[in-house]
Amino acid sequence: MLATRTLLSKQTLAVLSRQPACFVHQGDHGNWGNTKVALVFSGCGWWDGTDVHEGVYTMYHLSRNGARFRMFAPNQQQMHVIDHMKKQPLSGENRNMMIESARFSHGQGKRQMQDLSTLDVSNFDAVIFPGGHGIIKNLSSFMKDGKDCKLHNDVERVLKEFHRSRKPIGLASMAPVLACRVLPSIEVTMGYERDENTRWGNWPQTNMVEAVKGMGARHVVREPYEAYVDEKNKVVSTPSFMWETDYHYHYISDGIGNMVKHVLRLSTK
Question: What is the pTM of this model?
Answer without folding.
Answer: 0.87
